[in-house]
Amino acid sequence: MSVRKIAMTAFRVLQLAFLALVAADVVLDLTHPFWLDFLPLVLAYVLVAVVNRWGGGAPDAPGVAREPVETGPPVTGRWSALNSPADRTPSHGLHAYGQTFAIDLVAEPEPGARPGFRALWPLARRNHHFPAFGAPLLAVADGTVVRADDGQRDHLSRTSLPALLYLMLVEGSARELAGARRIVGNHLVLDLGGGTYAMYAHVRRGSFAVREGDRVRAGQLLARCGNSGNSTEPHVHFQLMDGPDPDTARGVPFTWRGVGVPRNGEVFDVPEPAATAPSGSPASSASRPSGV
Length: 292
Hints:
Helices cover 22% and strands 20% of the residues. By secondary structure, it is an alpha+beta fold. Residues 178-242 form the M23ase beta-sheet core domain. It comes from Streptomyces rochei.
């Protein structure tokens, strides 16, 4: 087990110890000094700082600068970019989980096709209201499937203010403590060679068309867009990493052939390769593209 993996495991154990001490203090009315409750939390962040400095780098540490790796896009159809590394890095606000250069995509087949954010109502929407749900996810290059993690449910959207607060304050915190798998949800990782791995996160449960160990060709159907893990709505979350484990990998910059790196809010079209898209899929019609 790598130093970074051990560090992340210890970090979560110390966070749980902090919560357990606080709960015990409230329920049992303990008489020890209150600052002792925070000792595990302090140790957790000291551990990350130490490993960052002397242990080869924690998962939060930026990796060595690399040139962008060119691949094909993971989707076809008409899409809009969110949380793009073209606007800032880390694109999602942190380097952890190898997502320094990650990008989110939402399907935009036509104006108004994707439900917008609402302050109060409806609190949540079902996934079929979003055109990204069920859209094909395609191999961005030839490679080998090294992870195909399925089984987590596709939850309702978190596209209202109360639902978003719940995600940020309750659900997201619980997923963070549970580890990377609960953050990225159902996910698939391809080994592209040369120390580069492509990850597709928040995949639809039961949609995997490949298994671990399979060799795949560029443009091949891998799975379908879903809404599992720490996700506000059905969308494609894509990133390149320098290892297969998002808990310890560092992000690698990418550029998509024919597209580049779309900026936040930029709408782009990817032609559908006739030989790879199955009939009846959401991407097989110009009015139904593929996911956020």
